[in-house]
Amino acid sequence: MSQFKSDLLRLLDSRGYIHQLTDAEGLDALAAKQIVPAYIGFDATAPSLHVGSLVQIMMLRRLQQAGHKPVVLMGGGTTRIGDPTGRDESRKMLSDETIEANIASIRTVFDRFLKFGDGPTDAVMVNNHDWLGKLGYIEMLQKVGTHFTINRMLSFDSVRLRLEREQPMTFLEFNYMILQGYDFRHLAQEMGVRLQMGGSDQWGNIVNGIELSRRMDGLEVYGLTTPLLTTADGGKMGKTAKGAVWLNGDQLPAYDYWQFWRNTQDADVGRFLRLFTDIDLTEIERLEQLQGSEINDAKKILADAATTMAHGADAALAAAETARKTFEEGSGGDALPSISVSDSSIALVDAMVDLGLVASKKEARRMIAGGGARIDGEAVADENALISKGSTTVRISAGKKKHGLIEFC
After folding, report:
1. Which residues are annotated as a binding site for L-tyrosine?
2. Of 21, 145, 169, 375, which is the most exposed, with the fewest CB atoms less than 10 Å away?
């Protein structure tokens, strides 16, 4: 049984979101007696967030489910600087137009996970460029800079690791933690935000904001971080041979998203069901006890639930049906990745790369040599094989789980 009294912390604890809390008792008491507005920040460096951000999105969803108010902070201002956390080099500078377009695209993801509106627990999205863009630099240094010491800032992992690796950090990036701390203080003053949440790598930045609010305003605010999320084999969550697992459908088809969850390792099924679905905990306990081939049923349930949340029920149903046809009936499906070829033939290694079934031609040749490549279900041993226009559509397979379609036109 959870040691927490509030619905919020009990929910987060039971589903595995809590790693660190700055003042567990204080936050628990506050959440038990009032609606707590809480925020997580997201920079707008791409048109879509990816699965690596999904724990944070789900935490905002849990916050709303527990009767509190999610505040989605888009870093329209901080994106112009770049968060140095976990990076060995500076991010490329983006234009104002690109940042705004990215924010608009990312908003469509949040619309699926949260209920936005004007109610007391409805989610809101704010852009820190609205206040950071108005700060005079001298004013910022005078009012805020005095509360940060260089000694302390140099001790943070985001700075220390970069310096230890002899990778340069610009003075612009060095200011990021100050601006993030100011964000927390601004949201606390203007919107009554009392809690910042984030990944474990954000702990130092969150503590900065808490200390800044206390020193400048005497206000008690709180911080909560999630555990570093890795897969059972120690890999980084959301990384595949094809690249990032994007949340927007125009960046990654719903079928590929469904297949990502279907390919979850056995040991991760229960944890991922708790973190990434709304399935009842009792049912999750049953599903994670399945053994042998039966665990695949739990993986399909995970894939259906996660894809429904991100892409809608129709997309999840179509993806599941495509997978069933592909793996159980051996036929193709509309949601498989596909390429159009206008020539009369295409090299098998090129087709495998273009479809995203492998990362390189070298990997394709290795797959063919190992007997893992198939054309319309037939194994191919010749790495120089050509796929000719014998029919309109040809199905290519790389191993047992990756399939794609070539459409000759």
Report:
1. 39, 176, 180
2. 145
How do residues 148-203 score in pLDDT, each as one tens digit?
777 777 777 767 777 777 777 766 667 777 888 899 999 999 999 999 999 998 89
Rounded to an integer, what distance in angstroms lies between the CA atom of residue 93 and that of residue 84? 13
pTM of the model: 0.78
Tens digit of each residue's pLDDT (9 = 90 or more) over 122-136:
999 999 999 988 887
d(CA 74, CA 72): 6
List, as residue ranges, the binding site for ATP. 239
Low-confidence ranges of the chain (pLDDT < 50): 84, 86-90, 241-242
Binding-site residues, please?
39, 176, 180, 239
